[in-house]
Amino acid sequence: MVNTGRKIEFQIRQLKPDDVHLMKDLLDCFGEAFDEMASYRDYRPDDGYLRELLSGDSFIALVALVDNIVVGGLASYELKKFEQRRSEIYIYDLAVAERYRRQGVATGLIDRLKLIAKNRGAWVVFVQADYVDEPAIKLYSKLGIREDVLHFDIPLDDL
What we know:
Helices cover about 35% and strands about 30% of the residues. By secondary structure, the chain is α+β, with helices and mostly antiparallel strands. The protein has one domain (about 1-145): Gcn5-related N-acetyltransferase (GNAT) (Aminopeptidase, 3-Layer(aba) Sandwich), CATH 3.40.630.30. It has a six-stranded mixed β-sheet with strand order 1-2-3-4-5-6, sandwiched between helices. The longest helix is centred in the C-terminal third of the chain and has 15 residues, at about 105-120.
């Protein structure tokens, strides 16, 4: 149990291949938190795909549980570097259900990811935030060093 000295106690669990049901609950949590249920539910991969994803070395999924219910989580990727024998961990998605926010859940998830990253030999954990996402910017500013960069999506439609 993680006790942050705040209102709730929660457990953090790293998902394994047999945790497909929790991965689906995490996808629902993301859909609700980001108000994008269609993105996270309508085209959801099958159980075999999710099991394979959770079996791989590069994908890390963590969930925060209160009474065995997913109340938050993160999905991240380990990026092995080529210029040195080390890696970076990229937080792709992080969300906490609205009623559990500002109670240490997101910080607890990131703290656990930092331990995993250190054990894997990573040298940094990084995350992106949208300029308009003030709660995320406030959280990440508390935990790390801000770098202002540009992000570009390169479409594959013209291939």
